[in-house]
Design goal:
30% helix; ten-stranded mixed beta sheet; alpha/beta; four-stranded antiparallel beta sheet; Alkaline Phosphatase, subunit A; 476 residues
Length: 476
């Protein structure tokens, strides 16, 4: 009898292990790609007058294009915080560029690691608390990508350009070539290791392109000879970036993981002013604005095994939806996300044509805010002063006509909704969401790395590097 019991136990165990293996095999790989300062209009499929993006166009043709996708904030670090947490930036303490993400937050890479994924970060980080150009991240930096759950990382603190100096888990490495192509190549090497080891991978590739300073080779600028010098270099950078997207997709296909990889592309904020042709596709405002031009960004999602080719959605979505969507796709526990969460899962958009978003989207940045309920948008350029405008984007996409007087009931309701959301963000900012009920006293302030003690040993050796010259050779 015992022998029969043992055989049954063995069979049951093998069935369980087989089931677990099958579950692991069905986990999609996930790659998140984000550009730096690319405007909503800077895509070939939006008929940009000079820029061609054949790789991104091909990705869109084979996947889902989100026409109303929003960065979580109008500049870089805050938006990156929304990707990592699913929460609006001020909840996490990342008020503006260069502010550090709190270690008390529940971070996406930690969740992926716990779910059995190999995790890697490549490129710009800008969540470790430093302003200044992109410096290689120090090995003992508690808020490095490794501090938030990335197994491997090749990263810099902020924007980076051609011939970058990067940090591989604290070891500085000098590269030659276009920064976008370099980080994609390094990410593909990481992916190859995981494919060979039959382990699902979660990879974040955050470009430094097309953030200033603009640096491009002549070959990539040929199509833009009629433009001014800075615009020509800016668009040249984007040619190389698009080429790197092509290399990424080609690499995934060559490794035969393309079909089972969810590849998500978007920008971190609206486009730049003073670039010609303009960057935001005719929207109002640019980077650092809470109008559409500062918040709405290009977004394409490709997942061949799940998303049918050629899908287009006009349903509002944003960067704070990325983490909740991944939680939904993988069936992770509900406590994976720290509450309150601002994002929602947009997994339904992968297969359905949804017109309306069920939850309003709130944005807060340096005493300015926006609150979007589908086509209705509240804008405040002075939150503390209680000043608001409300626009109907369906009738007024240029955000020119404040409808408060015409629709006082709607305005009252929307302002009240915003105030309630804003109060909840204030509570989060104060640390009320954490088990301790407060922000950790060890959480540091924002610092300019060229003026810090920890980077002092490197200043002399870096002062003649093109990317650092104007920051390290200031007259005293």
């Amino acid at each position: 009898m015992r022998s029969l019991f043992n055989r049954l136990s063995l069979v049951s165990g093998l069935v369980l292990l087989s089931g677990m293996a099958a579950l692991a095999a069905t986990k999609p790989n996930i790659v998140l790609v984000m550009t730096d300062d690319q405007g909503w209009g800077q895509m070939g499929f939006y008929n940009h007058p000079v820029l061609k993006t054949p790789s991104l166009d091909a990705m869109a043709a084979n996947g889902l294009r989100l026409n109303r996708f929003y960065a979580g904030a109008p500049n870089c670090s805050p938006t990156r915080a929304t990707v990592m947490t699913g929460r609006t930036n001020d909840r996490t303490g990342v008020e503006n560029h260069g502010f550090p993400l709190r270690l008390q937050e529940k971070a996406l890479p930690r969740a992926m690691k716990k779910a059995g994924y190999a995790t890697g970060h490549f490129g710009k980080w800008h969540l470790n608390g430093y302003t200044g150009p992109g410096a290689p991240i120090l090995k003992d930096d508690a808020r490095s990508p490794g501090g938030f759950g990335f197994d491997e990382w090749l990263s810099v603190s902020n924007f980076f350009d051609r011939d970058p100096l990067l940090s591989r888990k604290g070891k500085f490495e000098d590269y030659k070539g276009d920064s976008s192509e370099i980080v994609v190549d390094e990410a593909l090497k990481f992916i190859r290791k995981q494919v060979d080891g039959k382990k699902p991978f979660f990879v974040v590739i955050w470009f430094g392109t097309p953030h200033s300073p603009f640096m491009s080779i002549e070959e990539d600028m040929k199509a833009f000879d009629g433009l001014d010098g800075e615009s020509r270099k800016h668009y040249g950078e984007m040619v190389a970036m698009d080429r790197s997207i092509g290399a990424l997709r080609k690499g995934l296909r060559a490794m035969e993981v393309h079909d089972d990889t969810l590849l998500w592309f978007n920008s971190d904020n609206g486009g730049l002013p003073r670039i010609k042709p303009e960057t935001v596709g005719g929207l109002r405002g640019f980077k650092n604005s809470v109008y559409e031009g500062g918040l709405r960004v290009p977004c394409v999602i490709e997942w061949p095994s799940t998303i049918k080719a050629g899908r287009v959605s006009n349903c509002p979505a944003g960067t704070f939806d990325i983490f909740p969507t991944i939680v939904d796709v993988l069936g992770l526990p509900s406590d994976t996300l720290l509450q309150p969460v601002d994002g929602v899962s947009i997994k339904p958009l992968f297969s359905k044509d949804l017109v309306r978003r069920t939850k309003p989207m709130g944005f807060r940045h340096t005493n300015r805010a926006a609150f979007l309920d589908n086509n209705l948008k509240l804008v405040s350029l002075d939150v503390k002063g209680g000043k608001y405008a409300i626009y109907d984007l369906a009738k007024d996409p240029d955000e020119k006509t404040d409808i408060q007087e015409q629709r006082p009931g709607l305005a009252k309701r929307m302002i009240q909704q915003f105030k309630e959301w804003n109060a909840s963000v204030d509570a989060s900012y104060a640390g009320k969401d954490y088990p301790e009920g407060r922000v950790s006293p060890d959480h540091p302030p924002r610092k300019n790395w060229p003026e810090t003690e920890e980077y002092a040993p490197y200043i002399e050796g870096w002062k003649d590097r093109p990317e650092f010259k104007r920051y390290l050779n200031k007259k005293k």
